[in-house]
Amino acid sequence: MEAKIFSLLLLVTLVYGQDSTESDSSNDSSSEEDTYTYPCDTQDLACMRQYFSKSLLCTNSSHDDGSPIQEDRLAAYIPKINMTILANGTVVTFYGSQITRFREDRSSYNLVITIKYDSINIKSETANYVINQQERESLVVTDSFNLTYSGELSGTVIQGGWTYLSFVEVNTDVLSDSSIEVGSSISNSSNEVISQTYEDLEADLPTAMTELLFTIAPYSFYVYFQKYICDYGYEYTGAETQRWTSYYFPSSPGQK
Known about the structure:
By secondary structure, this protein is of the alpha+beta class. The protein has 6 helices and 10 strands, in the order βαβαβββββββαααβα. The chain has helices at residues 25-35, 45-55, 184-187, 192-203, 205-229, 242-248; strands spanning 4-8, 36-37, 59-60, 69-78, 83-95, 98-105, 111-133, 136-159, 163-182, 230-231. It is elongated and about 60 Å long.
């Protein structure tokens, strides 16, 4: 079966986090020195691993760009077309990743990590596309899922009574050359509801991709952190409720 591919260039970013103009650069530099500390050089992953292993209950990890990462589950949402995507056996691959910011706020001790990358590919051969219908049972279609996007991720590590990752504050600052690919079960479906949902997706791809990345960005940040820096053994899927994951995902051995 030949999959249908959508491609677009997103000109509007999810978060406007641009640097100041050159005229303010010297003042900004002085202000940053007063506000932030820099525990590790952005090229020193070994230092970062040591930094987190001391404050998080995690194990140092390491991974190479271009090598696929196997994840169990992913949940993503496209509210504009009332669709939830629940993928099993997800494969995530980073290309050209580089940490460009690693700084700690002097007052809150919160730490910001920014990751720039050439592209991220997320795919699954068995994704359940849940089409929510008003006053009717949701329609579920199983098909392939393949997403590629590029840009920059920024995430905040909150320092509290215990240290944890704050995925709510993961932002995607730059998006370009993004694409989503689905299989023929959706693109060539004769079902009226599925066909209309597919048409709605094609009609406004920039909005659909932006909505999708509000879920995918935190997921991508989590996967990178766990595999490249420190693994604390918790699977972040993007699912907002246990009801969705337990209902649509196959149960694990021993799980009811």
